[in-house]
Specification:
Helices cover 25% and strands 19% of the residues. With 389 residues, it is of the alpha/beta class. It has 2 domains: 45-195, GTP1/OBG domain (Spo0b-associated Gtp-binding Protein, Chain: A), CATH 2.70.210.12; 201-377, P-loop containing nucleotide triphosphate hydrolases (Rossmann fold).
Length: 389
């Protein structure tokens, strides 16, 4: 499928005017069915209807046996309606399986029967979701639960209570009750599931900046790598092992470009995945146009427009593909860029591995510092304002 995308890209570059930029090419690709199907393999947002099972009705029955007059009431209770439960499973990493249907309705409880036989309880309906799933109420937008840990569960739609049979209502003053309760209806609601990948480090940058190459260099992940933009059509995760047996999860966030915050390209689809990261690596292609400074501000602007909090995350700037330039030239570019931004800039080459280990150490140190700051804030005693002794 990616081969077809490559061919379409080459045709667009050859048969359209020279100023036919990547944005226009992407718009053409988005109209093709195979391109849409490729994107749909990774689903990070879905709206579904969930309903708990109805409780079973109680039974009105009287014991009738030969030689046993006045047998009395023996109607059993109904069964409890089943619950709808969302469970975090480590076996899945996308919401794709849930898109096969829209309505998830749990099993109803069975009705009670004579001879004091109770109805069968409904079997709970368990829906497996990936770690990092955010549950929202579709009508109000209220966040119900953020599922961050494997094995975590939440009852999202409670099953209805059982109805009691007439045997339950027998008393000294009412020895032949001729009524029973109906089972209660199960709760129903529309919910929205949003997947936000849980990663320590997010790799951002313009298309073809070398994010996938960098991820494959520092981890065992093997994302699609090619010489054309928008090679990566879905987020990629990789585990990076560092000193002291520590591990960091890196995420390659694809499709960031001008206008991504407003839905152009793939950016608005995957920008939310940056929200959970602790640190951001901003990769800039030092050999491409626009110039590195313009590329930097373009991505920063998109982050701020999508969510101002994203622009506040700790950031490490790295200029990639320095192997394509002379040493003096790229060092001069890096020096000027660092001076204009008033931030350190790390020159690296993802393809050769140059300075990559140094960059990873800097990332690890920054994450350790951030973790220490968070722990110190949590350990501070909290007192009541205005309290006097």
């Amino acid at each position: 499928m990616n081969l077809v995308v490559e061919l379409v890209y080459i045709l667009c570059k050859n048969f359209f005017p020279v100023d036919y930029d990547n944005t226009l090419i992407l718009r053409e690709l988005e109209t093709l069915p195979f391109f849409i199907n490729t994107l749909s393999m990774f689903v990070d947002e879905v709206t579904i209807f969930v309903k708990g099972g109805d409780g079973g009705d109680g039974c009105v029955s009287f014991r009738r046996e030969k030689y046993i007059p006045h047998g009395g009431p023996d109607g059993g209770d109904g069964g409890k309606g089943a619950d709808v439960i969302l469970h975090v499973s480590e076996k899945i990493d996308t919401l794709l399986d849930i898109t096969s249907k829209v309505k998830f309705i749990a099993e109803n409880g069975g009705s009670g029967r004579g001879s004091n036989r109770n109805g069968k309880d409904g079997k709970d309906l368990i829906i497996n979701v990936p770690k990092g799933t955010l549950i929202k109420d579709s009508e109000t937008g209220r966040v119900i639960k953020d599922l961050k840990k494997t094995g975590e569960s939440i009852r999202i739609a409670r099953g209805g209570k059982k109805g009691r049979g007439n045997a339950y209502f027998k008393s000294a003053t009412n020895q032949t009750p001729r009524f029973a309760e109906e089972g209660k209806k199960g709760r129903e609601r529309w919910i929205k599931l949003e997947l936000k990948l849980i990663a320590d480090v997010g790799i951002i940058g313009l298309p073809n900046a070398g994010k996938s190459t960098f991820l494959s260099q520092v981890s065992s992940a093997r994302p699609k790598i090619a010489s054309y933009p928008f090679t990566t059509l879905q987020p990629q995760l990789g585990i990076v092992e560092i000193e002291d047996f520590k591990r960091l999860v890196f995420a390659d966030i694809p499709g960031l470009m001008k206008g991504a915050h407003s839905g152009l390209g793939l950016g608005s689809t995957f920008l939310r995945h940056i929200e959970r990261t602790k640190v951001v690596i901003h990769l800039i292609d030092i050999s491409a146009k626009p110039d590195p400074l313009e590329s930097y501000y373009l991505i920063r602007k998109e982050l701020k427009l999508f969510n101002p909090k994203l622009s506040e995350k700790p950031e490490i700037i790295a200029t990639n593909k320095v192997d394509l330039l002379d040493t003096r030239i790229y060092l001069n570019i890096v020096k000027n860029l660092a001076k204009k931004l008033s931030k350190p800039v790390y020159p690296i080459s993802a393809i050769t591995g140059k300075n990559v280990k140094t960059l990873i150490k800097r990332v690890a140190n920054l994450i350790d510092k951030k973790t220490e700051d968070e722990n110190s804030c949590l350990s501070l005693p909290v007192g009541r304002q205005g309290q006097t002794r």
